[in-house]
């Protein structure tokens, strides 16, 4: 049984079994973004790259709600399995599927019908609005399978299938490269081709992770359990920090895009996009670590194996700090070689990106501890602490920084905003972690969690 593995197997082995596939899946996701950037930047142009960046908050909204439900459900289900409450686990899953499907369908309709309004709201100017609107319209058609891929992929981990999601991402990568080559380079479909390649490739993951969810022999599948409205609030509460994180990503992307456009124009947005293509690999590895340890933490917390919870957190923090240091070194010393993959034909964008990367790099020395700390609190059901970290990390200090620093340091102030936010959040994360004590008295039955919701 999966529960015996999570509760008894050596932590380092569980880390490899659960986090490595999650890291690979995250990296493949990042590779797809980079591949999109290479094709778009070299075969369509800088304005197309800027258009995708401006349209990104819509995708982040979709991902944000998907993560809200998926991570909240995973934490809730993991702890309920740790307590041995399989009936509640089934109800949580069924409710999550219905909730995510309904909201995804609504988002799909809104994105398809009101793409121009959304593009304008996100800050697209007259040069970019047509491309942004077309990008959002195409992506909207794929919202439902993209969303369910998260929920099913995460849930597969609780039934001894932690590798399925990354296998789906491998298929997605192959499809993405193929479609980008055909639709952008050969058929010259432009931004529509880029959107089709992204939407279709991500939707293919759904087909891979769907299998166990329609197998009636598994403890978690779409045919068992019942819709229980009382589980909705705990699901949303448990996953709220992930939603805050995605909301923060969408908000910060908008703020950065607007700041660059106001100070230096479309070239600044393209430069920022290029640097993020590179920097996201370090970020995604840390996200993969946090993602992979979630089921280990939640199950063992539910089973009151607190020493295993502490050891899992400690291992994750150590590895994430190493990854952050390597990301810093890469951005600070080798950005020129990497940025040319996306902007070889635009010297202005190249110059802006190289200069900015040396400032932006400092953020990655610290973000690992903040990310792991937020995910730790989510996994064990302490959403308030997780929300505090996520809000400070991705929203509050970002807004504060970008409101003040560009006025003092011009374009350098934009690049320094994320390092500023990470430093400020570190003090809060460290304080919350050091004062928090695991104890059996804090481990409240999940039945009471449902009753009180």
UniProtKB/TrEMBL annotation:
Against CDD domains, the record matches this protein to:
MATE_MepA_like
Sorted alphabetically, which NCBIfam families does this protein's record hold?
A: matE (TIGR00797)
Q: What does the UniProt keyword field contain?
A: Antibiotic resistance, Cell membrane, Membrane, Transmembrane, Transmembrane helix, Transport
Its GO biological process annotations read: response to antibiotic
Organism, per UniProt? Clostridium thermobutyricum
Q: Would you tell me the protein name for this molecule?
A: Multidrug export protein MepA
The places in or outside the cell where this protein is found are: Cell membrane
- Bilayer-crossing residues are 20-44, 50-76, 97-114, 134-152, 164-183, 189-214, 235-257, 277-301, 313-334, 387-408, 414-433
Q: Its topology with respect to the membrane? A: Multi-pass membrane protein
Q: Which GO terms describe its molecular function?
A: antiporter activity; xenobiotic transmembrane transporter activity
GO terms for cellular component: plasma membrane
Q: Cross-referenced Pfam families, in alphabetical order?
A: MatE
Domain of life of the organism encoding this protein = Bacteria
Task: Please state which protein family the record places this protein in.
Answer: Belongs to the multi antimicrobial extrusion (MATE) (TC 2.A.66.1) family. MepA subfamily.
